[in-house]
Amino acid sequence: MENDIGLWGVPLAVLGGAIRVSTPFIFVSLGEAITERSGRINLGLEGTLVFGAMAAYAVAVETGSPWLGVLAAMVAGSGFGLLHGWICSFPRVNDIAVGIALMLFGMGLAFFFGKPYIQPSAPNLPAIPLGDWSSIPQVRAALNVNALFVIGAALALFLWWAFKNTKLGLIVRVVGDSADSARAMGLSPTTVRLFATAAGSALAAVGGAYLSLYYPGSWNERISSGQGLMAVALVIFARWNPLGCFAAALLFGGAGALGPALQSVGVTQGYYLFYAAPYILTLVIMIATSSPGRQLAGAPGELSITK
Amino acid sequence: MSHSLISRRTLLKTSAAGAAFGAAGLPFSLRPARAASATIGFIYVGPKDDYGYNQAHAEGAKVLKGMSGVTVVEEENVPESVDVQKTMESMINLDDATLVFPTSFGYFDPHMLAMCKKFPDVQFRHCGGLWHKDKHPANAGSYFGYIAMGQYLNGVVAGHATKSKKIGFVAAKPIPQVLNNVNSFLLGARSVDPSITCQVIFTGEWSLAVKEAEATNALVDQGADVITCHVDGPKVVVQTAANRGAFVCGYHASQAPLAPEKYLTGAEWNWATVYEMYAKHLLAGEPLPNFTRGGLADGFVKMSPLGPGVSDAGRKQFEATLAEIKKGGYAVIKGPLKDNKGKEIAAAGKAFPETAIELESTGFLVEGVQGSTS
């Protein structure tokens, strides 16, 4: 049989899966990293992701331009972020509770407005064929990289650099580590967190746009299946480090592709177990790196879960 | 989550009725008897325009909306949990539904059976369940179509279209209906060329878009060039497969508009036949059948029009096989046949036509299918 790649299909599928599946994780976890670095947790990103997916799809269907869809998702996402930041700016408001409320609100709103867009087909985001050097179609397919993935990778690098080396990065970190010092410096923690949450939500919504406009590339009410929530967990897993977020997202994407790939080469027993692989991996790494003696390394001091 | 059997809506309704009773001071019946009119409830597990399972049922429900005397109430996106019990309760208590169709597989046991006991005057008919008169209440019942025959015809067309002699199947869960479809798809293809194999990938859930796309990619990576599926919404599978250049056979409803060039044909439900039959019985005050089954000949199942990728030879064999099936008694599972672990399923001369009740508890994949039921 020509083009029979046999067992090579598994590593190839994991690589392809890492590239295809990871992008929403990258954007949501980078967004959440910005928000959490400023000392606030936004658990509503699952709702923002779903709403972003819907908004992007709807705008792409109506205008015929997927990039306008991505833009619409960003605008809608920052709207959700501003709402979260604004509500949390009142005294004695719990950011986690607000996040959960906004998650359900975002999903409900997306289902409501998204009803007429389940059937139409939207134009997809373009892919960059990085595999053209290969004569094997499977490799070419795996290396068909979407522009958003590249942007996500660049963004991870940029954020990692910016947190360390720019004034803006310093401001976000100071606000996140000690609100009192920030006030002493003349900064307003509430304002900084408001914009950090808005920026984080805008990125999460771009993750949603990737889901509906590229992979799997259609809008329906179950498009996300909890990816926004997992990405929030990834941030802790990645120790609030943007590069770590990127790596963790790749790992998750690749591990998620393992189940179908193993079945396709004939390892067919126990696929439910393989599907749990990403979660088992998370547990193992969390246990291996945890310590009862010290606080999580890299945790912003103002976070309500670590305070 | 509340374990109380009284839903919020039930409580609201009861207290509202109590208030009205107190105000008017007149006794009135909660459920007035109406001649030749009925409210029928439909419950879907996903959106009713999903290009798939739910859309097929909703298209059937739409036909009932045009019947005089019938009021249709619908609810979408109801999980296969205690939620569906609450939905059924509110349809019965609030909307006076006297016939309820909980259409998803997981609604049957224990949810629908619990409601059957609670509301003995209401009729429940479930899609796909295996109703048995000794085991289940008399106001319950089940209906289904022999859609595996449609997957057999998909297989015939796929057998003519495949060049790699390998076809792929994206399946949700290893339940009998799914396994019958996988087996039929391969056996249809093998009626064209006995060397064809079929790779099946189970995603584990009825609707999991990313995993369905990954499964489709994995199948194409392994050389499968005709793909079909049994998931709730085939849209993702059809689009992903067509993007990778593979042919697709549809399922549940027609997905031809999603991939006009690559769509060969598809096995579609035609639930309007079943729902009209039930509604007519209900309006006439006649008892409803408890166990309803039908196939291509009965109009329960239909095939999508053949696409441009079907060869003349494929078209010819498709039409001949379809005519043969419509005569009745056509057996896909017939001896000598082994499962993919080498165990004999049917000895030579033994045949299981579509009506065979054994097929409703299928637990095997036939020889030539690469995959496992657990």
Task: Describe what you observe in this structure.
The complex is a heterodimer of chains A (307) and B (374). The longest helix of chain A has 29 residues, at 9-37. Chain A is mainly α and 307 residues long. Chain A has 13 helices and two strands, in the order ααααβαβαααααααα. Chain A has helices at 9-37, 45-63, 66-88, 95-114, 137-142, 147-165, 167-177, 179-184, 189-213, 227-237, 242-264, 271-275, 277-289, and strands at 127-129, 144-146. Chain A has one domain (6-124, 136-289): ABC transporter involved in vitamin B12 uptake, BtuC, CATH 1.10.3470. With 374 residues, chain B is α/β, with parallel strands linked by helices. Chain B folds into two domains: 38-145 and 271-294, Response regulator (Rossmann fold, 3-Layer(aba) Sandwich), CATH 3.40.50; 148-268 and 298-370, 3-Layer(aba) Sandwich (Rossmann fold), CATH 3.40.50.2300. Chain B is 36% helix and 21% strand. Chain B has helices at residues 8-24, 53-65, 82-95, 108-118, 148-161, 176-190, 209-221, 235-243, 272-283, 312-326; strands at 38-43, 70-75, 97-102, 123-124, 126-127, 142-145, 166-171, 197-202, 226-230, 247-252, 263-269, 291-294, 301-303, 331-334, 337-338, 344-346, 351-353, 369-370. Chain B has a seven-stranded mixed β-sheet with strand order 13-11-10-9-7-8-18, with helices on both faces. In chain B, α2 runs parallel beside α9 (272-283), α5 runs antiparallel to α10 (312-326) and α7 runs parallel beside α8. The model of chain B is unreliable at 1-5 and 14-35 (pLDDT under 50). The A-B interface holds A 1-5, 9, 12-13, 16-17, 20-21, 111, 115, 118-119, 121, 138, 141-142, 211, 215-218, 220-223, 225, 227, 256-257, 259-261, 263-266, 268-272, 275 and B 46-47, 49-51, 77, 164-166, 199-204, 207-215, 217-223, 233, 235-236, 239-240, 244, 258, 370-372, 374. Chain B: Residues 39-307 form the ABC transporter substrate-binding protein PnrA-like domain.
